[in-house]
């Protein structure tokens, strides 16, 4: 249940949504104009490319999809559980995400689509890492579920039904983080182009360090 989420999860969810917002805006503003934090539009574009027999575009879009899924596979391999609790390997996963985001910068600056694949893999890793806690879905790289939940809550409110206030605030938190990340990402891309991805790369590294420190400080004595 959302009520069982510890306070540090709320801060982490906002930070990771902020990271995803930055990454996606850079992808949309870059030379491929391609979203990299979610796969709905990419899958539709792949279908259109296949229908048009555009082999080059189809291979590129399939590579973006594969890269995102590869990130989710890495997350499952590293963390080995969907239950979020101290002692899991989240620090390692966050450091790997940071590495992939930083790696994408020189690749994109060289005009290589491999940079997009690295960024997509990082987003898949992040999304799988925080995908579920005690049966409550948490997504930080796309907002369809968050806006859907907000609509459901509004419908419940209009019918006079009880609303899960913690879930409501979690939705608002993640949406605001993604939106703020998008603003910062757009401004940073205007100033420093693809080097803007170094910002979320550093943020994920700092988040990893904060998680590892928190784990160390709260571990049982002896």
From TrEMBL:
It comes from the Bacteria. It holds the Pfam family DUF1275. Keywords: Membrane, Transmembrane, Transmembrane helix. The chain crosses the membrane at residues 7-31, 58-79, 91-110, 116-138, 168-188, 194-213. This is Uncharacterized membrane protein YoaK (UPF0700 family). It comes from Prosthecobacter fusiformis.
């Amino acid at each position: 249940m959302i009520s069982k989420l510890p306070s540090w999860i709320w801060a982490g969810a906002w930070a990771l949504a902020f990271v995803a917002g930055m990454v996606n805006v850079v992808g949309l503003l870059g030379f491929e104009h391609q979203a990299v934090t979610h796969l709905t539009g990419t899958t539709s574009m792949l279908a259109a490319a296949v229908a048009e027999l555009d082999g080059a575009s189809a291979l590129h879009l399939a590579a973006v999809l594969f890269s995102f899924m590869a990130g989710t596979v890495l997350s499952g391999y590293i963390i080995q559980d969907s239950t979020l609790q101290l002692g899991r390997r989240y620090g390692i996963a966050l450091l790997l995400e940071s590495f992939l985001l930083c790696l994408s910068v020189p690749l994109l600056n060289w005009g290589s689509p491999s940079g997009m694949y690295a960024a997509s893999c990082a987003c898949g890793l992040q999304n799988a890492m925080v995908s579920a806690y005690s049966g409550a879905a948490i997504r930080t790289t796309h907002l369809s579920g968050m806006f859907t939940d907000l609509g459901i809550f509004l419908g419940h409110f209009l019918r006079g039904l009880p609303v899960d206030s913690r879930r409501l605030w979690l939705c608002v938190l993640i949406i605001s983080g993604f939106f703020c990340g998008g603003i910062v990402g757009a401004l940073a891309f205007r100033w420093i182009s693809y080097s803007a991805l170094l910002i979320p790369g550093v943020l994920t590294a700092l988040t990893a360090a904060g998680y590892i420190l928190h784990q160390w400080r709260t571990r049982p004595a002896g």
